[in-house]
Amino acid sequence: MATIGFIGLGNMGAPMAANLVKAGHRVNGYDVNAKVVQALAAAGVQAAHSAAEATRGADVVITMLPAGEHVRDVWLHQGGLIEAVKGSTPLLIDCSTIDVDSARVVTDAARVAGLEMLDAPVSGGVGGATAATLTFMVGGSDTAFARGLPVLQAMGKNIVHAGGPGAGQAAKICNNMMLAINMVGVSEGFLLAQNLGLDWDKLFQIASTSSGQSWALSSYCPAPGPVPAAPSNRDYAAGFTAALMLKDVKLSQAAADATGSPTPLAAHAMSFYQAVVDAGDGGKDFSVVFRRLANLNRQGQA
Amino acid sequence: MATIGFIGLGNMGAPMAANLVKAGHRVNGYDVNAKVVQALAAAGVQAAHSAAEATRGADVVITMLPAGEHVRDVWLHQGGLIEAVKGSTPLLIDCSTIDVDSARVVTDAARVAGLEMLDAPVSGGVGGATAATLTFMVGGSDTAFARGLPVLQAMGKNIVHAGGPGAGQAAKICNNMMLAINMVGVSEGFLLAQNLGLDWDKLFQIASTSSGQSWALSSYCPAPGPVPAAPSNRDYAAGFTAALMLKDVKLSQAAADATGSPTPLAAHAMSFYQAVVDAGDGGKDFSVVFRRLANLNRQGQA
């Protein structure tokens, strides 16, 4: 079993670290919020008083942070983690969802320092983190992936090697960008059905077994009723928040801008998630975009 | 077995009529193009010299026509089919894909004349029409649906009762509108992946088993490679043509306008299918929208 330094013990990081302990690993945890570190003592996570301290003696160092700026800061700044682990050769894994450029900058710096690193963003949310059923989308070399696999398997169920450095982040934002579009599209379809007097259950029955099918429709229908487990039936309690979806679509648009990629529907869809967040619903499930469209409908602002 | 009048023997209507003969029905066929009627003699379809003649002695009268104007014209104009069948009480079935309003106008006229009518647009294309594996989305009363079911089963595999009059048309355009959006979204995702250096097969492997999944991706991937059976691997040979998709999205937008429904992504997606048709690719499969976006990408017109 490995010694693992874990930096970033928020809503996702905390249960992920706890699952590593459950799997028999020794985990040294650090977070800027000392309270969450203390709270994890009961789960068997050893408290470290700095990020650098958490990496001492580590075979693997994992970060789970909010955004690219935090990831660059923690790994690269003077006295940052890449400097801290020099001399030993732990495997580095960043599980944050960040921009592809930041992921590649940090991975390059690790490579220059003679270290192997994986970008391994997740999907599955807090529920998946707690149940150790996350999906990891992993970028990095074959050898680094092989090294990281057993550790990732303690936190997730589906571990996919997407390609070289940055490929994990690329896969996540491409997937979530398509999801963001599909969800607005399903919302438009169900609103139009309602206005045409077509029953939602009938549209669901037809489209979920036909060419209009999508995960957004079949598993997460934003109109209440057809999918009982969907957040639409619980006043859009998340689930995957609109704020996080907005973050991911923004990352996709930053990547599209940087590479000159035409993503017109994604840009259009983003404006709806932005409007949801601006209206104070960022903490609701992202499928709440249906309710926003329904409000536009009622107001005749189509 | 029934006597069936069949009006409209084009690419879809001809194999549908032939399948009715195969199932043991007597079919009297008519089309404005006398040649297609003659050609169907070999399949056992009796030639009628007018639409009205095709309805003589019919238990069921079926129309399969290009657009709402033709359907209204054939059924409603002076000497039209509703007048022609007065005195007998055949079941009327319109299998054309038309606007919801035209469908309801014709159904209302039928009702006033004491006749039962179904709107029953199909999906599955010429291949489905030939193999008798079409999906029928059917609007109309329970009794009319029960009466029509055995006839529709001779031409299709999946017969869904979507609701009252017009519900078949509503279901088809809502489904196809969602499909139109999903297809552009998948195209954007695969182009962004390419520009980020993410392998298409990897994105497919991840997204087809994740929240980004859709029929447009899993069964019909517009980027060549991941789905060998998809038109993208045959230079976008249809399949379902871009011209027909444009027709359906236009119907959805007409319905959205008429009901004040907000369908912003559908309107945006429509502009891409329009551009494909304007560029002379209306006969290609609708997934050719990927190639259009890829061209924009190369031209830096993102």
State the largest interface.
A-B, 73 and 73 residues
Content of β-strand of chain A: 5-15%
Write down the secondary-structure element order of chain A: EHEHEHEHHEHEEHEHEHHHHHH
The named CATH superfamily of the largest domain in chain A: NAD(P)-binding Rossmann-like Domain
Topology, number of strands of chain A = 9
Oligomer: homodimer
Shape of chain A: elongated
Helix content of chain A: 40-55%
Summed over residues and divided by their number, the pLDDT of chain A gives a mean of: 95
Gyration radius from CA atoms of chain A, angstroms: 21 Å
Helical stretch tally of chain A: 14
Strands ordered across the widest β-sheet of chain A:
3-2-1-4-5-6
Tally of discrete structural domains of chain A: 2
CATH class membership of the largest domain in chain A: Alpha Beta
CATH fold-level topology of the largest domain in chain A: Rossmann fold
Q: What's the main sheet of chain A like?
A: 6 strands, parallel
Q: Structural class of the helices, strands and pairings of chain A?
A: alpha/beta
Low-confidence regions of chain A:
none
Distance between the termini of chain A: 58 Å
